[in-house]
Specification:
alpha+beta, 5 strands
Length: about 325
């Protein structure tokens, strides 16, 4: 069976080659015309230039007071995969895109009609076509910007690098500031409560009420007192302790608990205050963008070769279809 197929395939190849040779002039003319047209088109396309910046994400987004958090990520450590992915998302965010669009008036630069109902969609498509943010195998972020103006491409790429910190800081502040305000309010409440308890304890102390350890000494002092005035004062203190000792002990325990809570919240408050008020860098700049002196696209030779090869394939297919049509027409 295979032996029967091989002569058939060989015959078909021979027929195809004969067909191409027979129509070599038509195919040659078509390829020559395509060569001329594609060359003209390739050289009519305005060249675009690419500028590239490279940054590394930082492992830490702030200064940490907790020992565990400090050990987890130092301010001088490079970020890993998680931080790199987060940074790519920040670079791809609408907040950063809108700032670049506004600063460089990209709607006008990309010739987008302000009256066009689809202007936002077209602007986003143009932006995404000229700005790319990719994570490299080394964990860094590669920022590429293409434009017909090489100086502008480099300027926009460097502006993207400069905006990373402010945009990410704004995102973090949206959570850090409310957390700080909640912590601040809670700490103030605890301090007010502590002051209130302390005031009551001071008033009880003024009446002679003492803590549990000192209470036993009152009876001993009363028994040892020889002066009537001293005995009267001690008797007054003993009566005051009998009446208010339970309240005093309860308030004292409550005060100690509040002091412990305040110490705990004060540590968290300091961390929240740092997160809310510290503008920390979220990147390491490895390479800033420079003005390119060589165009990135179009690849004119590629355009011409693809067009010529495509015209040859299309020409052969078209001639085969035409020949088959003529054969069917004669048989009809």
């Amino acid at each position: 069976m295979n032996q029967e197929k091989e002569p058939t395939l060989e015959k078909e190849r021979t027929n195809l080659l004969l067909f191409i040779w027979k129509n070599r002039k038509s195919l040659g003319f078509m390829m020559l015309a395509t060569l001329v047209i594609s060359t003209l088109i390739a050289f009519m396309i305005t060249p675009e230039y690419r500028s590239r910046a490279i940054v590394f994400p930082s492992a830490s987004n702030g200064v940490y007071f907790s020992e565990g958090r400090t050990q987890k990520a130092s301010a001088l450590d490079f970020g890993e995969e998680e931080q790199a992915e987060q940074l790519v998302q920040v670079l791809s965010s609408a907040a950063l895109r809108d700032r670049i669009v506004d600063e460089f008036d990209l709607a006008k630069h990309y010739n987008i009609d302000p009256a066009d109902p689809n202007k936002s969609y077209k602007l986003i498509q143009a932006f995404e076509g000229n700005f790319t943010f990719d994570r490299t195998k080394f964990g860094s972020i590669q920022i590429d910007v293409t434009d017909q103006n090489p100086q502008l491409a480099a300027k926009m790429a460097n502006k993207v690098v400069d905006l990373i910190d402010s945009v990410k800081h704004e995102i973090l502040l949206s959570r850090a500031v409310p957390a700080f305000r909640i912590m601040q309010r809670k700490l103030n409440q605890l301090n007010v409560q502590l002051d209130s308890i302390t005031t009551i304890l001071d008033s009880l102390s003024a009446l002679g009420v003492v803590n549990f350890e000192a209470r036993g000494g009152l009876y001993e002092a009363y028994g040892n007192a020889t002066n009537a005035a001293d005995r009267a004062l001690l008797r007054q203190q003993i009566e005051a302790n009998k009446e208010h000792s339970a309240k005093y002990d309860l308030l004292q325990n409550s005060r100690n608990a509040k002091i412990g809570q305040i110490e705990y919240f004060r540590n968290n408050y300091e961390q929240a205050e740092s997160d809310a008020n510290t503008a920390f860098s979220h990147k390491f700049i490895v390479e800033r963008a420079t003005v390119s002196d060589k165009k990135d696209k179009p690849k004119r030779l590629v355009i011409i070769l693809v067009a010529v090869i495509g015209s040859a394939v299309f020409g052969i297919f078209g001639l085969l279809v035409w020949q088959r049509y003529q054969e069917l027409k004669q048989l009809a």
